Structures are given as C-alpha cells and as structure tokens.
Amino acid sequence: MARQKETAILRRFRKLNLQRLLYLQAEITHLEYEVKQLAERDSAHEDRIYHAKDWWSLSQAGEREDTEQWRVFSELSGKLDLYSKLSS
Where do the domains of the chain lie? Predict the structure, then answer.
C-alpha cells in the first residue's frame, strides 16, 4: 500500500477578505480623525494639555472625559494590529 498525502481545496474568499480590509481601513481612518479631534480638544484643557504628547498622563487620566482619547486610541491600536495582520 502506498502512502498518499491528503489534499484539500479551500476557498479563499478573496472578494470578501478585500472588502473586510476596506471596511477596516475606513474604521481606522474614522478613529484616526476622532483621536485628532480629541487631542485638539484636550490641548485646550488645562488638565489634559499633555495628553497628545505624553502617553502616561493620557493612560492614567481620572475623569470620564479625560479617558476618552485613551479609549479611542486603544480601539484604534487594536484595529491597526488586526489590519497589519490581515494585510501582510
């Protein structure tokens, strides 16, 4: 008896994967805009003036409004990781 490797034919769903990347790209662009807007808003606030330049002050902020930029940036970071993984 001869040994034979099994072969499988699987669909790659190319169009759907490309559409997923495009949607992810749109989400990233939207979050990028949001972070920029929040950074501009925070730069005008005395307690949040360093948030756009200092990740520590941003990540350790106390009030809800103080953490909004960090929350959006964290979401953006996750989307970027996924985009990099899927597009390579």
Answer: 14-87
